[in-house]
Write a structure and sequence with these properties.
Layout lengths: L1 H6 L18 H11 L4 E2 H8 L3 H13 L3 E4 L3 H11 L19 E4 H18 L5 H11 L6 E2 L2 E2 L12 H11 L5 E2 H12 L5 H9 L3 E9 L3 E8 L3 H4 L6 H5 L3 H11 L4 E2 H14 L13 H13 L3 E3 L3 H6 L13 H4 L29 E4 L7 H16 L1 E2 L1 H6 L5 H14 L4 E3 L9 E3 L1 H12 L8 E4 L29 E5 L2 E6 L5 E4 L9 H16 L5 E4 L1 E2 L2 E2 L6 H6 L3 E3 L2 E5 L1
Parallel strand pairs: 18-20
Antiparallel strand pairs: 1-3, 2-3, 4-5, 6-8, 7-8, 9-11, 10-11, 12-14, 13-14, 15-16, 16-17, 17-18, 19-23, 20-21, 22-23
Helix pairs in contact: 2-4, 3-4, 7-21, 13-14
């Protein structure tokens, strides 16, 4: 009867009388039934479905809305139709032709359907915001740093290399420097344990090339021990935002006369070999800035080296290659000269300090001292606003850690701590650039990340690798979350792990497997060595540790204890000897 009375349809004969009883609002009943069985729809859809005029259909819908049966609003119907037409390959010129009656575009949904959809959406949102495990975050962090291949199920998107990470070539080196821009790490660690761990075919010439053409700068952050020191690397294009602030007047007042003279010479612009500074700096001491002599008395190489390196460690000056740092830390120099390609010479990051001020100079340092090799110049100090520097810091944290928590801010000693960053995080969240939530269990409620990172974290949480790849890295590596973002796992030994230089960790199957203490005397294990099912993980983990140790040149130590037990009495004895350790009276010796 509703079809007959509302639409004027002639009904077939013989229908039971119960179906022929007239209704008070036949058209409203038909539309209400349609609404109860469909998602959001438009007035035009009702008009087409029932063969009505748009005005008639919209009036009927308005009556149902007044009765509380329908809701009117913007429910994304138009966007959904556009997506369907696009996926179907419709002609773009024919998509969504303009409707002659504006009433046709009104969107509607049944009240009970809306409630069901909202409940399902809330449930899906709760599922999406359920914190992932810490193991999934460990895998995400290793993946972001190029230490393991990107995984899809059980397959790898990148080739699996036996040594080094998933990155390749000089572009891989540039990517590592971009990700770690401004992070101070020991100079002795950068090549052996940072770049070699990530770039599987790394050679020293790659880093030298990036620095020599001015694409990358290095900056000192203080001396460590006798020959080592903290160094940060910076893409030249963003150096103004990532370099530390200029030293204050109090620091400059503490400089020696020779150091101030060196800075005066370099302040004229350009770059100088050490042997040139040995002449020009004393001349400044004699005549001052107004009367520079090129024939001043030479400074002893030892005095010049001390002055230059004190300035370098303090962040005043830099050089146009990594060779001086390599010589100080005892690393092996490149086996071949650097030949800069025409393509690399044209990179946008080329800086002025790579241009020599003088001609006819030799490429050695002050009379052949390898720690003074190359040309020295002032670090550029372009001004950058506090907002720009904070934004660069936040973007760097997101790039390095994926999910930024209080622990990441503490680990990088952010001025003002995590609260100082939260206003910018909230602004980025309001702009839709990042999201906030509890993404990783146990890391607090204030966690910030890009949406793609959160999606990747959830993908990794649902994956389980049948063949976990162990990764050995320096304990102080930013890719090691333990002792920084995640707490160290409990261990029965009295030894407490630290992130000191010279210590190593092995991570496999998204968990900490081994920790080798600084100096190599003790090895801590975090899995059950007596479990036969874990035997392959132990052997591959020790092999990864040996590969990391081999990256260190002239490394010698004796491993004496494993979990507070003499190493020769443990089940790891044979596996360690198979990886390159040799027997000595005190335990197992490593010599490389």
């Amino acid at each position: 009867a509703r079809v007959r009375d509302a639409l004027g349809v002639t009904l077939p004969a013989g229908l039971p009388d119960v179906f022929l009883q007239p209704a008070a609002d036949p058209l409203g009943d038909l539309i209400a039934r349609y609404a109860r069985t469909h998602g959001p729809f438009t007035t035009n859809a009702i008009a087409v479905r029932f063969g009505l005029g748009v005005t008639v259909a919209d009036a009927a819908l308005e009556r149902l809305r007044a009765q509380g049966k329908l809701l009117k609003g913007n429910f994304g119907v138009e966007r959904r139709l556009e997506a369907q037409e696009e996926s179907a390959g419709a002609d773009p010129s024919m998509r969504n032709p303009p409707m002659p009656n504006p009433l046709a575009g009104h969107e509607w949904i049944a009240d009970d359907v809306f409630r069901r959809l909202r409940l399902r959406s809330l449930k899906a949102a709760r599922e999406a915001t359920r914190p992932a495990t810490r193991e999934a975050y460990v895998r995400l962090l290793l993946e972001r740093h190029g230490l393991v291949a990107l995984s899809v199920g059980q397959a790898a998107l990148h080739p699996r290399h036996t040594e080094g990470g998933a990155l390749t070539g000089i572009d891989g080196v540039a990517r590592v420097i971009e990700q770690l821009a401004g992070v101070p790490l020991p100079a002795s660690v950068w090549e052996n344990q940072i770049l070699r761990a990530r770039v599987h075919n790394y050679t020293p010439a790659m880093l030298d090339e990036l620095i020599s053409i001015g694409t990358v700068l290095w900056c000192g952050h203080g001396k460590l021990g006798g020959e080592d020191g903290l160094i940060s690397l910076h893409p030249r294009e963003f150096a103004a935002e990532t370099l530390p602030p200029t030293a204050g007047a109090d620091d400059a007042a503490a400089l020696s006369p020779l150091q101030r003279a060196i800075l005066d010479v370099l302040a004229d612009g350009g770059a100088y070999f050490a042997r040139q500074l040995a002449t020009l700096a004393p001349a400044r001491l004699v005549e001052g800035p107004a009367g520079i002599r090129d024939d001043g008395p030479l400074v002893p190489t030892s005095d010049l080296a001390t002055a230059l390196w004190d300035l370098a460690w303090a962040g005043y000056i830099t050089s146009d290659n990594w060779s001086p740092l390599r010589a100080r830390t005892g690393a092996r120099a490149p086996h071949r000269p650097i030949h800069l390609s025409r393509r690399r010479r044209g990179l946008r990051g080329l800086s002025s300090f790579a241009q020599s001020r003088t001609t006819g100079a030799s490429t050695s340092g002050a009379r052949g001292d390898p720690t003074l090799a190359g040309r020295w110049s002032l670090l550029p100090r372009e001004s950058a606003s506090d907002t720009a520097r904070t934004l660069a810091l936040v973007e760097g944290l997101l790039d390095r850690y994926g999910i930024v928590t209080r622990g990441a801010a503490v680990a990088e000693d952010v001025p003002g701590g995590f609260p100082a960053l939260q206003p910018l995080f909230r602004s980025m969240e309001d702009a839709g650039q990042i999201v906030r939530g509890r993404f990783v269990e146990g890391l607090g409620a204030a966690q910030f990340a890009e949406r793609a990172t959160v999606d990747r974290l959830r993908e990794l949480a649902d994956m389980r690798s049948a063949d976990p790849v162990p990764v050995a890295l320096s304990a102080g590596d930013p890719a090691n979350p333990f002792g920084m973002i995640l707490p160290w796992p409990p261990h029965r030994s009295a030894i407490r792990p630290t992130r000191r230089g010279g210590a190593f960790v092995v991570i496999a199957d998204e968990r900490l497997v081994f920790y080798l203490t600084q100096g190599g005397r003790n090895l801590l294990t975090y899995i059950d060595a007596d479990d036969p099912a874990l035997a392959p993980l132990l052997s591959t983990g020790l092999a990864a540790l040996a590969a990391a140790l081999k990256r260190e040149k002239h490394l010698m130590f004796t491993l004496e204890m494993v979990d507070d037990r003499p190493v020769r009495t443990t089940k790891l004895d044979a596996a360690l000897r198979a990886c390159g350790f040799s027997m000595v009276p005190k335990g197992l010796s490593w010599h490389q």
